[in-house]
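Aim 2, interim progress. The first record below pairs a target sequence with its C-alpha coordinates.
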Amino acid sequence: MTRYDEIRIENLVVFAHHGVYPEETRLGQKFLVSVTMFTVTRRAGRTDELSASTNYGEVSQFITSWMQENTCKLIEAVAERLAEALLGRYSLLAGVELEVKKPWAPVGLLLDTVSVKIERFWHTAYIALGSNLGDKKAYLDGAVQALRKTVGCQVEKVSSYLETEPYGGVEQDNFLNACLRLRTLLTPQELLDELHRIEQEAHRERLVHWGPRTLDLDLLLYDDEVFETDTLIVPHVEMHLRDFVLIPMAELAPNLRHPILQKTMTELVRELNREG
Protein backbone atom coordinates (compact mmCIF):
# COMPACT_ATOMS: atom_id res chain seq x y z
CA MET A 1 0.00 0.00 0.00
CA THR A 2 1.22 3.51 -0.82
CA ARG A 3 2.55 5.45 2.16
CA TYR A 4 0.93 8.86 2.56
CA ASP A 5 1.61 12.00 4.56
CA GLU A 6 -0.94 12.99 7.19
CA ILE A 7 -2.80 16.18 8.09
CA ARG A 8 -4.66 15.86 11.40
CA ILE A 9 -7.52 17.65 13.10
CA GLU A 10 -8.05 16.52 16.70
CA ASN A 11 -11.31 16.77 18.67
CA LEU A 12 -13.14 19.46 16.72
CA VAL A 13 -16.14 20.40 18.91
CA VAL A 14 -19.48 20.53 17.10
CA PHE A 15 -22.98 20.93 18.53
CA ALA A 16 -25.32 18.91 16.31
CA HIS A 17 -28.56 16.91 16.28
CA HIS A 18 -27.72 13.23 15.77
CA GLY A 19 -29.14 10.37 17.78
CA VAL A 20 -31.74 7.62 18.11
CA TYR A 21 -33.87 9.33 20.75
CA PRO A 22 -36.21 12.25 19.93
CA GLU A 23 -34.65 14.48 22.59
CA GLU A 24 -31.23 14.03 20.98
CA THR A 25 -32.40 15.23 17.58
CA ARG A 26 -34.59 17.95 19.10
CA LEU A 27 -32.23 19.40 21.70
CA GLY A 28 -28.89 18.46 20.14
CA GLN A 29 -25.65 17.63 21.90
CA LYS A 30 -21.88 17.99 21.71
CA PHE A 31 -19.77 15.82 19.38
CA LEU A 32 -16.00 15.63 18.98
CA VAL A 33 -14.66 14.91 15.50
CA SER A 34 -11.08 13.90 14.74
CA VAL A 35 -9.83 13.31 11.21
CA THR A 36 -6.52 12.19 9.75
CA MET A 37 -6.29 13.12 6.07
CA PHE A 38 -3.99 10.91 4.00
CA THR A 39 -2.41 12.91 1.21
CA VAL A 40 0.94 13.94 -0.30
CA THR A 41 2.32 17.16 1.17
CA ARG A 42 5.53 17.23 -0.89
CA ARG A 43 4.46 19.98 -3.32
CA ALA A 44 3.01 22.14 -0.53
CA GLY A 45 6.19 21.68 1.49
CA ARG A 46 8.42 22.67 -1.40
CA THR A 47 6.33 25.60 -2.70
CA ASP A 48 4.92 26.90 0.60
CA GLU A 49 1.65 27.54 -1.26
CA LEU A 50 -1.70 26.85 0.44
CA SER A 51 -3.27 25.92 -2.92
CA ALA A 52 -0.94 22.90 -3.06
CA SER A 53 -2.39 21.45 0.14
CA THR A 54 -5.73 20.70 1.78
CA ASN A 55 -6.69 23.65 3.98
CA TYR A 56 -7.39 22.22 7.46
CA GLY A 57 -9.26 25.39 8.43
CA GLU A 58 -11.63 24.99 5.51
CA VAL A 59 -12.00 21.29 6.30
CA SER A 60 -12.90 22.13 9.91
CA GLN A 61 -15.57 24.55 8.70
CA PHE A 62 -16.91 21.94 6.28
CA ILE A 63 -17.12 19.28 9.01
CA THR A 64 -18.95 21.70 11.30
CA SER A 65 -21.45 22.67 8.61
CA TRP A 66 -22.02 19.07 7.54
CA MET A 67 -22.57 17.89 11.12
CA GLN A 68 -25.09 20.68 11.74
CA GLU A 69 -26.95 20.43 8.43
CA ASN A 70 -27.44 16.64 8.46
CA THR A 71 -29.18 14.32 10.91
CA CYS A 72 -28.37 10.64 11.47
CA LYS A 73 -29.62 8.20 14.09
CA LEU A 74 -26.32 6.34 14.46
CA ILE A 75 -22.82 7.74 14.83
CA GLU A 76 -21.77 4.90 12.51
CA ALA A 77 -23.83 6.62 9.81
CA VAL A 78 -22.40 10.02 10.76
CA ALA A 79 -18.84 8.70 10.33
CA GLU A 80 -19.57 6.89 7.05
CA ARG A 81 -21.38 9.75 5.37
CA LEU A 82 -18.99 12.41 6.60
CA ALA A 83 -15.97 10.43 5.36
CA GLU A 84 -17.65 10.06 1.97
CA ALA A 85 -18.42 13.79 1.87
CA LEU A 86 -14.82 14.72 2.72
CA LEU A 87 -13.32 12.42 0.10
CA GLY A 88 -15.77 13.63 -2.52
CA ARG A 89 -15.03 17.30 -1.81
CA TYR A 90 -11.24 17.42 -1.37
CA SER A 91 -9.50 16.06 -4.44
CA LEU A 92 -6.01 15.81 -2.90
CA LEU A 93 -7.14 13.27 -0.31
CA ALA A 94 -6.41 9.60 -0.93
CA GLY A 95 -8.20 8.55 2.24
CA VAL A 96 -9.30 9.55 5.72
CA GLU A 97 -9.34 8.11 9.21
CA LEU A 98 -12.34 9.59 10.98
CA GLU A 99 -13.45 9.31 14.60
CA VAL A 100 -16.76 10.67 15.88
CA LYS A 101 -17.04 10.89 19.67
CA LYS A 102 -20.26 11.29 21.62
CA PRO A 103 -19.46 12.54 25.15
CA TRP A 104 -23.04 12.53 26.42
CA ALA A 105 -24.15 9.12 25.18
CA PRO A 106 -27.51 8.30 26.89
CA VAL A 107 -26.65 4.87 28.35
CA GLY A 108 -27.53 5.57 31.97
CA LEU A 109 -23.98 4.95 33.17
CA LEU A 110 -20.89 7.03 33.85
CA LEU A 111 -18.50 7.14 30.87
CA ASP A 112 -16.30 9.65 29.09
CA THR A 113 -17.24 9.09 25.47
CA VAL A 114 -18.63 6.60 23.01
CA SER A 115 -16.99 6.77 19.60
CA VAL A 116 -16.81 5.21 16.15
CA LYS A 117 -13.56 5.26 14.18
CA ILE A 118 -13.36 4.30 10.51
CA GLU A 119 -10.76 4.43 7.74
CA ARG A 120 -11.83 4.94 4.14
CA PHE A 121 -9.72 5.19 0.98
CA TRP A 122 -10.25 5.70 -2.71
CA HIS A 123 -9.69 2.53 -4.78
CA THR A 124 -9.02 2.03 -8.48
CA ALA A 125 -11.19 -0.45 -10.38
CA TYR A 126 -11.31 -1.40 -14.04
CA ILE A 127 -14.65 -2.27 -15.62
CA ALA A 128 -15.33 -4.00 -18.95
CA LEU A 129 -18.41 -2.92 -20.92
CA GLY A 130 -20.12 -4.75 -23.77
CA SER A 131 -23.36 -4.67 -25.78
CA ASN A 132 -24.68 -6.45 -28.87
CA LEU A 133 -28.41 -5.67 -28.84
CA GLY A 134 -30.24 -2.51 -29.92
CA ASP A 135 -28.37 0.78 -29.90
CA LYS A 136 -25.06 -0.61 -28.60
CA LYS A 137 -23.28 2.72 -28.33
CA ALA A 138 -26.20 4.21 -26.41
CA TYR A 139 -26.08 1.33 -23.93
CA LEU A 140 -22.35 1.81 -23.33
CA ASP A 141 -22.72 5.59 -23.07
CA GLY A 142 -25.58 5.08 -20.62
CA ALA A 143 -23.50 2.76 -18.45
CA VAL A 144 -20.67 5.31 -18.28
CA GLN A 145 -23.12 8.04 -17.27
CA ALA A 146 -24.76 5.77 -14.69
CA LEU A 147 -21.40 5.10 -13.06
CA ARG A 148 -20.62 8.84 -13.06
CA LYS A 149 -23.85 9.38 -11.11
CA THR A 150 -23.22 6.55 -8.65
CA VAL A 151 -22.40 7.82 -5.17
CA GLY A 152 -18.80 7.02 -4.27
CA CYS A 153 -17.69 6.55 -7.89
CA GLN A 154 -15.69 8.77 -10.25
CA VAL A 155 -15.10 7.71 -13.86
CA GLU A 156 -11.52 8.74 -14.64
CA LYS A 157 -11.02 7.48 -18.19
CA VAL A 158 -12.92 5.52 -20.84
CA SER A 159 -11.26 3.60 -23.68
CA SER A 160 -12.21 3.77 -27.32
CA TYR A 161 -15.18 1.64 -28.36
CA LEU A 162 -14.17 -1.54 -30.16
CA GLU A 163 -16.38 -3.75 -32.36
CA THR A 164 -15.61 -7.45 -31.88
CA GLU A 165 -16.93 -10.83 -32.86
CA PRO A 166 -18.99 -12.71 -30.23
CA TYR A 167 -17.15 -14.84 -27.67
CA GLY A 168 -18.27 -18.30 -26.55
CA GLY A 169 -19.67 -19.91 -29.68
CA VAL A 170 -23.26 -18.57 -29.53
CA GLU A 171 -24.64 -17.25 -32.87
CA GLN A 172 -25.33 -13.53 -32.40
CA ASP A 173 -24.52 -10.04 -33.59
CA ASN A 174 -21.10 -8.45 -33.11
CA PHE A 175 -20.35 -6.71 -29.81
CA LEU A 176 -19.33 -3.17 -29.04
CA ASN A 177 -16.79 -3.29 -26.20
CA ALA A 178 -14.83 -0.88 -24.02
CA CYS A 179 -13.16 -0.59 -20.62
CA LEU A 180 -13.05 2.22 -18.09
CA ARG A 181 -11.00 3.20 -15.06
CA LEU A 182 -13.03 3.99 -11.98
CA ARG A 183 -12.07 5.70 -8.73
CA THR A 184 -14.39 4.32 -6.09
CA LEU A 185 -15.12 4.26 -2.38
CA LEU A 186 -17.24 1.13 -2.78
CA THR A 187 -16.10 -2.32 -1.73
CA PRO A 188 -15.79 -4.90 -4.53
CA GLN A 189 -19.13 -6.50 -3.61
CA GLU A 190 -20.87 -3.12 -3.38
CA LEU A 191 -19.43 -2.20 -6.78
CA LEU A 192 -20.61 -5.51 -8.26
CA ASP A 193 -24.10 -4.82 -6.92
CA GLU A 194 -24.07 -1.41 -8.60
CA LEU A 195 -22.95 -2.96 -11.90
CA HIS A 196 -25.83 -5.43 -11.71
CA ARG A 197 -28.24 -2.58 -10.97
CA ILE A 198 -27.05 -0.66 -14.04
CA GLU A 199 -27.38 -3.80 -16.18
CA GLN A 200 -30.94 -4.32 -14.97
CA GLU A 201 -31.83 -0.72 -15.75
CA ALA A 202 -30.63 -1.45 -19.30
CA HIS A 203 -33.03 -4.45 -19.36
CA ARG A 204 -30.24 -7.01 -19.28
CA GLU A 205 -31.60 -10.58 -19.24
CA ARG A 206 -29.36 -13.53 -18.29
CA LEU A 207 -30.98 -16.20 -20.47
CA VAL A 208 -28.08 -17.81 -22.36
CA HIS A 209 -24.49 -18.09 -21.12
CA TRP A 210 -22.32 -15.93 -23.40
CA GLY A 211 -25.54 -15.02 -25.21
CA PRO A 212 -26.74 -11.68 -26.59
CA ARG A 213 -27.31 -8.85 -24.13
CA THR A 214 -28.14 -5.17 -24.05
CA LEU A 215 -25.39 -4.50 -21.54
CA ASP A 216 -22.65 -6.53 -19.89
CA LEU A 217 -20.51 -5.03 -17.11
CA ASP A 218 -17.62 -6.99 -15.57
CA LEU A 219 -15.34 -6.03 -12.71
CA LEU A 220 -11.86 -6.84 -14.01
CA LEU A 221 -9.45 -5.46 -11.41
CA TYR A 222 -9.73 -3.81 -8.01
CA ASP A 223 -6.46 -2.17 -6.96
CA ASP A 224 -3.94 -5.03 -7.04
CA GLU A 225 -6.11 -7.32 -4.92
CA VAL A 226 -6.59 -11.04 -5.50
CA PHE A 227 -9.61 -12.68 -3.90
CA GLU A 228 -12.54 -15.02 -4.48
CA THR A 229 -16.03 -15.18 -2.96
CA ASP A 230 -19.17 -17.08 -3.89
CA THR A 231 -20.22 -14.26 -6.23
CA LEU A 232 -17.01 -12.56 -7.33
CA ILE A 233 -13.49 -13.43 -8.47
CA VAL A 234 -10.87 -10.69 -8.88
CA PRO A 235 -8.95 -10.45 -11.17
CA HIS A 236 -11.57 -11.59 -13.66
CA VAL A 237 -10.66 -15.19 -14.48
CA GLU A 238 -10.73 -14.82 -18.28
CA MET A 239 -9.59 -11.24 -18.85
CA HIS A 240 -6.14 -12.36 -20.08
CA LEU A 241 -7.82 -14.53 -22.78
CA ARG A 242 -10.08 -11.86 -24.26
CA ASP A 243 -8.79 -9.43 -26.86
CA PHE A 244 -11.91 -7.28 -26.45
CA VAL A 245 -10.80 -6.72 -22.84
CA LEU A 246 -7.03 -6.53 -23.25
CA ILE A 247 -6.99 -4.09 -26.18
CA PRO A 248 -9.06 -1.43 -24.34
CA MET A 249 -7.11 -2.14 -21.14
CA ALA A 250 -3.80 -1.64 -22.95
CA GLU A 251 -5.13 1.69 -24.18
CA LEU A 252 -6.15 2.78 -20.67
CA ALA A 253 -3.18 1.44 -18.72
CA PRO A 254 -0.49 -0.12 -20.94
CA ASN A 255 1.97 -0.65 -18.06
CA LEU A 256 -0.52 -1.89 -15.48
CA ARG A 257 0.42 -5.40 -14.31
CA HIS A 258 -1.99 -8.26 -13.86
CA PRO A 259 -1.72 -9.00 -10.11
CA ILE A 260 -1.38 -12.77 -10.63
CA LEU A 261 0.38 -13.12 -14.00
CA GLN A 262 2.65 -10.11 -13.29
CA LYS A 263 2.56 -9.10 -16.96
CA THR A 264 1.54 -5.71 -18.27
CA MET A 265 -1.61 -5.21 -20.34
CA THR A 266 0.58 -4.56 -23.38
CA GLU A 267 2.47 -7.81 -22.81
CA LEU A 268 -0.77 -9.76 -22.45
CA VAL A 269 -2.09 -8.34 -25.74
CA ARG A 270 1.13 -9.36 -27.50
CA GLU A 271 0.94 -12.89 -26.07
CA LEU A 272 -2.68 -13.27 -27.15
CA ASN A 273 -1.82 -12.07 -30.66
CA ARG A 274 1.04 -14.56 -30.92
CA GLU A 275 -1.28 -17.36 -29.88
CA GLY A 276 -3.79 -16.30 -32.51
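The second target in this work package is listed in the same format:
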Amino acid sequence: MFKLFDLRERAKGRSIKVVVPEIEDERVLAGVKRAVTENVVGEVIVPYSLDIDLGVKYTCCTPDNYKNEVPESVTSKLLSKGVDWKDKFFFSSILVRLGIADAAIMGANVPTAITIKSALYCVGLEKGIDVLSSCFLIELPDGRNFVYSDCGVVPDPTSDQLADIAVSAAESCRKFFGLEPVVALLSFSTKGSASHPLVEKVQIAYKHLLNRDLDFEFDGELQFDAAVDIEVGKRKAPTSSIVGRANVFIFPDLNCGNIAYKITQKLANARAIGPVLQGLAKPVHDLSRGCSKEDVFDLLCVAALDSK
Protein backbone atom coordinates (compact mmCIF):
# COMPACT_ATOMS: atom_id res chain seq x y z
CA MET A 1 0.00 0.00 0.00
CA PHE A 2 1.44 3.37 -1.02
CA LYS A 3 1.81 5.98 1.70
CA LEU A 4 2.47 9.67 1.23
CA PHE A 5 5.73 9.42 3.15
CA ASP A 6 6.83 7.07 0.36
CA LEU A 7 6.43 10.03 -1.99
CA ARG A 8 9.46 11.49 -0.28
CA GLU A 9 11.43 8.28 -0.74
CA ARG A 10 10.45 8.05 -4.42
CA ALA A 11 11.58 11.64 -4.98
CA LYS A 12 15.05 11.05 -3.55
CA GLY A 13 17.71 10.87 -6.21
CA ARG A 14 15.68 12.81 -8.78
CA SER A 15 18.11 15.72 -8.39
CA ILE A 16 16.00 18.22 -10.32
CA LYS A 17 16.85 21.82 -11.16
CA VAL A 18 14.26 23.98 -9.42
CA VAL A 19 13.75 27.73 -9.60
CA VAL A 20 12.73 29.30 -6.29
CA PRO A 21 11.76 32.99 -6.42
CA GLU A 22 11.11 33.14 -2.64
CA ILE A 23 14.34 31.49 -1.52
CA GLU A 24 14.90 34.14 1.16
CA ASP A 25 11.75 33.13 3.04
CA GLU A 26 12.91 31.09 6.05
CA ARG A 27 10.30 28.36 5.49
CA VAL A 28 11.15 28.01 1.83
CA LEU A 29 14.89 27.99 2.49
CA ALA A 30 14.53 25.28 5.15
CA GLY A 31 12.50 23.08 2.79
CA VAL A 32 14.98 23.63 -0.03
CA LYS A 33 17.95 22.77 2.19
CA ARG A 34 16.36 19.48 3.13
CA ALA A 35 15.52 18.73 -0.51
CA VAL A 36 19.14 19.36 -1.48
CA THR A 37 20.44 17.21 1.39
CA GLU A 38 18.18 14.32 0.35
CA ASN A 39 19.05 14.77 -3.35
CA VAL A 40 15.49 15.61 -4.35
CA VAL A 41 16.90 18.86 -5.72
CA GLY A 42 20.25 18.94 -7.48
CA GLU A 43 20.41 22.61 -8.43
CA VAL A 44 18.72 25.62 -6.86
CA ILE A 45 18.07 28.53 -9.23
CA VAL A 46 17.33 32.05 -8.02
CA PRO A 47 15.65 34.22 -10.70
CA TYR A 48 17.38 37.48 -9.72
CA SER A 49 20.78 38.73 -8.59
CA LEU A 50 21.69 37.62 -5.08
CA ASP A 51 25.01 37.63 -3.32
CA ILE A 52 24.49 36.36 0.22
CA ASP A 53 25.26 33.11 2.01
CA LEU A 54 22.02 31.13 2.26
CA GLY A 55 23.67 27.98 3.55
CA VAL A 56 22.87 26.21 0.28
CA LYS A 57 24.55 26.47 -3.10
CA TYR A 58 22.52 28.33 -5.71
CA THR A 59 22.78 29.70 -9.24
CA CYS A 60 21.48 33.14 -10.18
CA CYS A 61 19.70 33.41 -13.53
CA THR A 62 18.76 37.02 -14.27
CA PRO A 63 16.31 38.21 -16.95
CA ASP A 64 18.97 40.27 -18.76
CA ASN A 65 20.92 37.09 -19.50
CA TYR A 66 17.93 35.48 -21.23
CA LYS A 67 16.20 38.42 -22.96
CA ASN A 68 17.10 37.04 -26.40
CA GLU A 69 15.77 33.57 -25.60
CA VAL A 70 12.30 34.47 -24.34
CA PRO A 71 9.71 33.97 -27.12
CA GLU A 72 8.09 37.17 -28.33
CA SER A 73 4.72 35.43 -28.01
CA VAL A 74 5.29 35.19 -24.27
CA THR A 75 6.47 38.76 -23.72
CA SER A 76 3.60 40.09 -25.87
CA LYS A 77 1.03 38.09 -23.92
CA LEU A 78 2.43 39.30 -20.61
CA LEU A 79 2.53 42.89 -21.86
CA SER A 80 -1.14 42.64 -22.86
CA LYS A 81 -1.91 41.48 -19.32
CA GLY A 82 0.03 44.36 -17.80
CA VAL A 83 2.82 42.10 -16.55
CA ASP A 84 6.56 42.68 -16.83
CA TRP A 85 8.17 39.41 -17.96
CA LYS A 86 11.13 40.24 -15.74
CA ASP A 87 8.96 39.91 -12.63
CA LYS A 88 10.62 37.18 -10.58
CA PHE A 89 7.52 34.96 -10.45
CA PHE A 90 6.76 35.13 -14.16
CA PHE A 91 10.44 34.88 -15.08
CA SER A 92 10.63 31.72 -12.94
CA SER A 93 7.99 30.08 -15.12
CA ILE A 94 9.80 31.30 -18.21
CA LEU A 95 12.95 29.51 -17.01
CA VAL A 96 10.88 26.33 -16.76
CA ARG A 97 9.52 26.88 -20.27
CA LEU A 98 13.06 27.34 -21.61
CA GLY A 99 14.29 24.18 -19.89
CA ILE A 100 16.76 26.07 -17.72
CA ALA A 101 14.84 24.72 -14.73
CA ASP A 102 12.89 21.47 -14.46
CA ALA A 103 10.26 22.99 -12.19
CA ALA A 104 9.30 26.08 -10.19
CA ILE A 105 7.72 26.47 -6.77
CA MET A 106 6.24 29.75 -5.56
CA GLY A 107 3.37 31.23 -3.59
CA ALA A 108 4.67 31.45 -0.02
CA ASN A 109 4.21 35.22 -0.08
CA VAL A 110 1.81 35.89 -2.98
CA PRO A 111 -1.75 34.79 -3.85
CA THR A 112 -2.33 31.57 -5.78
CA ALA A 113 -3.51 33.71 -8.71
CA ILE A 114 0.11 34.80 -9.31
CA THR A 115 1.30 31.20 -9.58
CA ILE A 116 -1.58 30.26 -11.87
CA LYS A 117 -1.10 33.25 -14.17
CA SER A 118 2.65 32.76 -14.43
CA ALA A 119 2.14 29.06 -15.23
CA LEU A 120 -0.59 29.61 -17.81
CA TYR A 121 0.99 32.59 -19.56
CA CYS A 122 4.57 31.34 -19.56
CA VAL A 123 4.42 27.52 -19.59
CA GLY A 124 0.98 26.69 -20.98
CA LEU A 125 -1.16 23.61 -20.85
CA GLU A 126 -0.31 20.02 -21.67
CA LYS A 127 -1.29 18.92 -25.17
CA GLY A 128 -4.91 17.76 -25.27
CA ILE A 129 -5.84 19.57 -22.03
CA ASP A 130 -7.79 22.83 -22.13
CA VAL A 131 -8.02 23.69 -18.44
CA LEU A 132 -5.58 24.08 -15.57
CA SER A 133 -6.86 22.33 -12.46
CA SER A 134 -5.61 20.98 -9.15
CA CYS A 135 -5.79 17.93 -6.96
CA PHE A 136 -5.14 16.92 -3.38
CA LEU A 137 -3.18 13.77 -2.60
CA ILE A 138 -5.00 12.15 0.30
CA GLU A 139 -3.78 9.47 2.69
CA LEU A 140 -6.18 8.02 5.25
CA PRO A 141 -4.86 6.73 8.58
CA ASP A 142 -5.45 3.15 7.35
CA GLY A 143 -3.01 3.74 4.47
CA ARG A 144 -5.50 4.10 1.63
CA ASN A 145 -4.71 6.77 -0.96
CA PHE A 146 -7.04 8.92 -3.04
CA VAL A 147 -6.89 11.82 -5.46
CA TYR A 148 -9.48 14.58 -4.96
CA SER A 149 -9.97 16.94 -7.91
CA ASP A 150 -10.60 19.81 -8.48
CA CYS A 151 -10.42 21.34 -5.02
CA GLY A 152 -8.59 24.60 -5.63
CA VAL A 153 -8.78 26.20 -9.07
CA VAL A 154 -11.91 25.90 -11.26
CA PRO A 155 -15.04 27.18 -9.44
CA ASP A 156 -17.73 25.82 -11.76
CA PRO A 157 -16.27 23.59 -14.48
CA THR A 158 -18.19 22.85 -17.65
CA SER A 159 -18.74 19.27 -18.79
CA ASP A 160 -15.75 19.58 -21.13
CA GLN A 161 -13.61 20.89 -18.30
CA LEU A 162 -14.74 18.11 -15.96
CA ALA A 163 -13.57 15.60 -18.55
CA ASP A 164 -10.16 17.33 -18.77
CA ILE A 165 -9.92 17.41 -14.97
CA ALA A 166 -10.61 13.67 -14.88
CA VAL A 167 -7.80 12.99 -17.37
CA SER A 168 -5.35 15.20 -15.45
CA ALA A 169 -6.30 13.65 -12.10
CA ALA A 170 -5.83 10.15 -13.47
CA GLU A 171 -2.33 11.12 -14.58
CA SER A 172 -1.66 12.58 -11.13
CA CYS A 173 -2.70 9.28 -9.52
CA ARG A 174 -0.16 7.38 -11.60
CA LYS A 175 2.59 9.97 -11.27
CA PHE A 176 2.46 10.61 -7.54
CA PHE A 177 0.96 7.40 -6.11
CA GLY A 178 2.20 4.89 -8.67
CA LEU A 179 -1.35 3.45 -8.72
CA GLU A 180 -3.61 2.66 -11.64
CA PRO A 181 -6.41 5.25 -11.56
CA VAL A 182 -10.05 4.26 -11.13
CA VAL A 183 -11.98 7.47 -11.71
CA ALA A 184 -15.44 8.31 -10.36
CA LEU A 185 -17.34 11.35 -11.64
CA LEU A 186 -19.28 12.31 -8.54
CA SER A 187 -22.80 13.68 -8.22
CA PHE A 188 -25.78 13.60 -5.86
CA SER A 189 -27.25 11.13 -8.37
CA THR A 190 -26.22 7.63 -9.39
CA LYS A 191 -26.93 6.59 -12.97
CA GLY A 192 -30.00 8.75 -13.41
CA SER A 193 -31.50 8.36 -9.93
CA ALA A 194 -32.14 12.13 -9.99
CA SER A 195 -32.89 14.57 -12.78
CA HIS A 196 -31.35 18.04 -12.63
CA PRO A 197 -29.07 20.28 -14.73
CA LEU A 198 -26.27 19.69 -12.19
CA VAL A 199 -26.60 15.95 -12.76
CA GLU A 200 -26.75 16.42 -16.52
CA LYS A 201 -23.43 18.28 -16.43
CA VAL A 202 -21.70 15.22 -14.95
CA GLN A 203 -23.49 12.85 -17.33
CA ILE A 204 -22.25 14.86 -20.31
CA ALA A 205 -18.72 14.85 -18.92
CA TYR A 206 -18.90 11.06 -18.75
CA LYS A 207 -19.98 10.94 -22.40
CA HIS A 208 -17.03 13.15 -23.34
CA LEU A 209 -14.68 10.67 -21.67
CA LEU A 210 -16.29 7.79 -23.56
CA ASN A 211 -15.35 9.54 -26.80
CA ARG A 212 -11.69 9.72 -25.86
CA ASP A 213 -9.11 6.99 -26.23
CA LEU A 214 -8.30 6.58 -22.54
CA ASP A 215 -6.27 3.92 -20.76
CA PHE A 216 -7.88 4.08 -17.33
CA GLU A 217 -11.16 2.95 -15.80
CA PHE A 218 -13.87 5.53 -15.13
CA ASP A 219 -17.61 5.82 -14.56
CA GLY A 220 -20.27 8.35 -13.68
CA GLU A 221 -22.42 9.81 -12.55
CA LEU A 222 -21.96 8.15 -9.14
CA GLN A 223 -22.74 9.11 -5.58
CA PHE A 224 -19.75 8.95 -3.26
CA ASP A 225 -21.01 5.94 -1.31
CA ALA A 226 -21.46 3.95 -4.51
CA ALA A 227 -17.93 4.81 -5.58
CA VAL A 228 -16.27 3.62 -2.36
CA ASP A 229 -18.60 0.97 -0.90
CA ILE A 230 -18.97 -2.11 -3.09
CA GLU A 231 -22.20 -3.33 -1.47
CA VAL A 232 -23.87 0.05 -1.84
CA GLY A 233 -22.44 0.35 -5.33
CA LYS A 234 -23.85 -2.98 -6.45
CA ARG A 235 -27.32 -1.91 -5.36
CA LYS A 236 -27.20 1.57 -6.86
CA ALA A 237 -25.17 0.87 -10.02
CA PRO A 238 -25.21 -2.89 -10.67
CA THR A 239 -23.74 -2.51 -14.18
CA SER A 240 -20.79 -0.36 -13.11
CA SER A 241 -17.39 -2.04 -13.03
CA ILE A 242 -15.72 0.46 -10.70
CA VAL A 243 -18.06 0.63 -7.71
CA GLY A 244 -16.23 0.22 -4.43
CA ARG A 245 -12.86 0.57 -6.16
CA ALA A 246 -12.58 4.27 -7.06
CA ASN A 247 -9.37 6.02 -6.00
CA VAL A 248 -9.79 9.25 -8.01
CA PHE A 249 -12.79 11.43 -7.22
CA ILE A 250 -13.88 14.17 -9.62
CA PHE A 251 -16.10 16.71 -7.91
CA PRO A 252 -18.73 18.62 -9.92
CA ASP A 253 -17.61 22.03 -8.65
CA LEU A 254 -15.17 23.76 -6.34
CA ASN A 255 -17.66 24.01 -3.47
CA CYS A 256 -17.95 20.22 -3.33
CA GLY A 257 -14.27 19.51 -3.82
CA ASN A 258 -12.91 22.02 -1.35
CA ILE A 259 -15.44 21.14 1.36
CA ALA A 260 -14.91 17.40 0.85
CA TYR A 261 -11.14 17.49 1.17
CA LYS A 262 -11.30 19.63 4.31
CA ILE A 263 -13.89 17.32 5.89
CA THR A 264 -11.70 14.32 5.06
CA GLN A 265 -8.62 16.04 6.46
CA LYS A 266 -10.20 17.20 9.71
CA LEU A 267 -12.71 14.47 10.59
CA ALA A 268 -10.84 11.46 9.22
CA ASN A 269 -7.43 12.78 10.34
CA ALA A 270 -6.19 12.36 6.79
CA ARG A 271 -2.93 13.74 5.48
CA ALA A 272 -3.29 15.92 2.40
CA ILE A 273 -0.72 17.39 0.01
CA GLY A 274 -1.92 20.15 -2.24
CA PRO A 275 -3.42 21.77 -4.05
CA VAL A 276 -1.12 20.25 -6.67
CA LEU A 277 -1.47 22.01 -10.03
CA GLN A 278 -2.14 19.64 -12.92
CA GLY A 279 -2.64 19.94 -16.66
CA LEU A 280 0.47 22.05 -17.32
CA ALA A 281 3.03 21.29 -20.01
CA LYS A 282 5.79 21.59 -17.39
CA PRO A 283 5.63 21.70 -13.58
CA VAL A 284 4.96 24.94 -11.74
CA HIS A 285 3.64 24.39 -8.22
CA ASP A 286 1.97 26.62 -5.69
CA LEU A 287 2.75 27.03 -2.00
CA SER A 288 0.16 28.25 0.46
CA ARG A 289 0.98 31.52 2.19
CA GLY A 290 0.50 29.59 5.42
CA CYS A 291 2.93 26.84 4.39
CA SER A 292 5.42 25.21 6.74
CA LYS A 293 8.92 24.03 5.89
CA GLU A 294 7.44 20.50 5.73
CA ASP A 295 4.94 21.68 3.12
CA VAL A 296 7.76 23.19 1.09
CA PHE A 297 9.73 19.94 1.18
CA ASP A 298 6.67 17.89 0.18
CA LEU A 299 5.94 20.23 -2.73
CA LEU A 300 9.54 19.92 -3.90
CA CYS A 301 9.08 16.14 -3.84
CA VAL A 302 5.92 16.57 -5.91
CA ALA A 303 7.80 18.80 -8.34
CA ALA A 304 10.57 16.21 -8.64
CA LEU A 305 8.11 13.42 -9.48
CA ASP A 306 6.28 15.76 -11.85
CA SER A 307 9.40 16.54 -13.88
CA LYS A 308 9.85 14.68 -17.15
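The chain is about 40% helix and 15% strand. This observation will shape the mutagenesis plan for the next reporting period.
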